[in-house]
User: Which sequence fits this backbone?
């Protein structure tokens, strides 16, 4: 009588199975199970840098005004007289890098103006004399870059208050330095005859400090105002002073893109040299600006 197949298979299934420690597949499976069971190490939360970057290219409809004195003479002349006070679009770029309460800002602008006029009355500038009817050609180049650091000293956090949940406002203290490069060229002529020329180019570094106030509403609208001032002098032959105030309104339809509109006025006073070799400029650069805001 033949033995049923199930009688042969069943003992094999029920028999205990053993593997030696040298059995590769068994060991590999055990290690794989341990790897799956062990949690994956994560970096500490405080080592993950939470940086935010903001870029603001702007167009500043600004004009320069003030009094100018060139080396070689003691007479002063206004930029208005030389027709160097025209309002034009000036390029401005601002870069912000922020983490937590700390923020670093770099801002720069460039102003370039030139003119050629026929004077109505005589005078002199930089030791060059001219009379009514003479031709005066002049140019002004003004470049400024400032690096500022700031720290948030107070903030109203809507997440911690039930009242005014859509309001977000803060106050920062700011400090840094502004570098200003000014170049002025002047030439006088009578017909085809040159009467003389004068030029000057100077670089100034001005430490500044101030405060910034920001008001945010519903995460889409914000108002930001900043005021700073400062000065530096080595005595009687080199000095620079500045007072700067700006405010702008921003609208962000998306978290990473927005538009802004504002006003800025920068008052400056520069002096380099002494006696007849002194260069002096005291004036203001002011006007409305508009631009875009990119956030990352």
Assistant:
């Amino acid at each position: 009588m033949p033995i049923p197949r199930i009688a042969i298979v069943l003992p094999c299934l029920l028999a205990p199975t053993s593997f030696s420690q040298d059995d590769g597949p068994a060991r590999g499976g055990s290690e794989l199970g341990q790897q799956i069971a062990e949690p994956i190490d994560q970096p500490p939360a405080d080592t993950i840098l939470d940086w935010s970057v903001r870029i603001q290219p702007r167009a500043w409809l600004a004009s320069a005004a003030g009094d100018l004195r060139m080396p070689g003479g003691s007479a002063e002349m206004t930029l208005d007289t030389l027709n160097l006070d025209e309002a034009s679009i000036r390029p401005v770029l601002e870069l912000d890098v922020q983490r937590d309460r700390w923020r670093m800002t770099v801002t720069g602008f460039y102003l370039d103006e030139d003119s050629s006029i026929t004077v109505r009355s005589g005078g002199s500038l930089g030791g060059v004399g001219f009379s009514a009817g003479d031709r005066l050609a002049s140019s002004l180049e003004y470049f400024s870059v400032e690096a500022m650091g700031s720290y948030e000293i107070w903030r109203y956090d809507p997440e911690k208050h039930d009242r005014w949940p859509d309001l977000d406002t803060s106050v920062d203290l700011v400090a840094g330095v502004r570098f200003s490069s000014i170049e002025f060229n002047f030439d006088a002529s009578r017909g085809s005859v040159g009467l003389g020329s004068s030029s000057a180019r100077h670089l100034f570094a001005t430490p500044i400090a101030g405060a910034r106030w920001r008001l945010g509403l519903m995460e889409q609208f914000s108002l930001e105002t900043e005021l700073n001032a400062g000065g530096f002098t080595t005595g009687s032959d080199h000095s620079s002073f500045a007072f700067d105030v700006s405010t702008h309104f921003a609208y962000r339809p998306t978290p990473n893109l927005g538009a802004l509109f504002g006003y800025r006025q920068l008052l400056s006073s520069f002096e380099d040299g002494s006696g007849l070799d002194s260069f002096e400029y005291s004036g203001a650069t002011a006007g409305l600006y508009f631009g875009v805001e990119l956030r990352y």
User: Anything to note?
Assistant: The longest strand covers residues 193-217. Residues 24-37 form the longest helix (14 residues). Residues 267 and 284 are 4 Å apart (CA to CA).
